[in-house]
Amino acid sequence: MKAVLQIENLTKNFGRLCAVNKMNLKVEAGQVFGMLGPNGSGKTTTLGMLMSVINPSSGSFKWFGEEATHETRKKIGAVLEHPIFYPYLTGQKNLELTAMIKGATKDQIAEVLQLVELTDRRNDKYKTYSLGMKQRLAIASALLNDPLVLILDEPTNGLDPMGIAEIRELIKKIASDGRTIILASHLLDEVQKVCTHFAVLKKGNMVYSGPVEDVNNGSETVEVNAEGDISEVLSAFDGVSAVNRENGFYEVKLKDGIKSKDLNKFLFEQGVTASHLVTKKRSLEKQFLEILAESK
Predict the structure, then answer these.
(1) One domain for residues 127 and 248
(2) What pLDDT shows up at residue 283?
(3) Closest CA to 17 of 37, 38, 45
(4) Mean pLDDT of successive 10-residue stretches along the chain, which has 296 residues
(5) Over the range 214-252, which residues count as b (16 or more CB within 10 Å of their CB) and which as e?
């Protein structure tokens, strides 16, 4: 896969504060890459440097294998902070002004409005738009020059559940044509639903990077129940690393490579019939908290 973005030792200091510390990262074409981290972790500062809004203290980054220039930035659309539109102009007129600045045609306006499902509201004034509609118009604005990469900083911030779902589906739709998306978010569930890869930032340091699908890999945890006290039987299984009693069930953590079916087979051989045996999926939230705890 071709690297769309290559970051090497990227660092930003604000006086004594190190906002981003020697970050190394590669984002490949077609990925939906999520930058996760609590407030103050360096997500927005990183995106600001990548868009040349903030100057790095040291280190470097390349877009499409080249140093960042005015030409490379034409291939990137971004929604950073709060988008600025004229409240008394319609959505259509606001996009026409943006298109004029970007050198895009009016044909592209109709296309992006349809993509973000605002065609029916294009002639309504911006001030009448809901927060979710305003965010969708901002994304439409970022797509006017048909960029190869779309950067979104907290795209669902402040939205209600319906607005979050709309933005999530929109991101999936934009990514489906092979466009690369880089987004910063603290909503772990949303990142797990839309991203293919993610990185975890903590106090300016990147402490983890990998595919989202790896969240469900590794050791399994299984909820088990049966008649009587089976704690000793469970502990006797070689594939068990820990047994806890929780919420009326035995929560059994299995060693790497051991599956729930192996545990079920062992119990059956010991004359125990499980009335409840469910594999618990790891959530991105759980892994995120584990990563932050490990990086103390």
Answers:
(1) no
(2) 63
(3) 45
(4) 90 95 96 91 94 94 93 92 89 95 88 95 96 95 95 91 92 94 87 90 91 73 86 88 83 82 89 85 68 68
(5) ebeeeebbbbbebeeebeebbeebebbeebeeeeebbbb
Task: Let me know if residue 153 belongs to a domain.
Answer: yes
- How many Å from the N-terminal Cα to the C-terminal Cα in the chain? 33
- Matching residue, tokens 């927005």: 44
* Number of domains the chain is built from: 2
The reply to whether 86 falls in a domain is: yes
Residue 296 lies in a domain: no
pLDDT reported for residue 40: 86
Tell me what pLDDT residue 251 has.
85
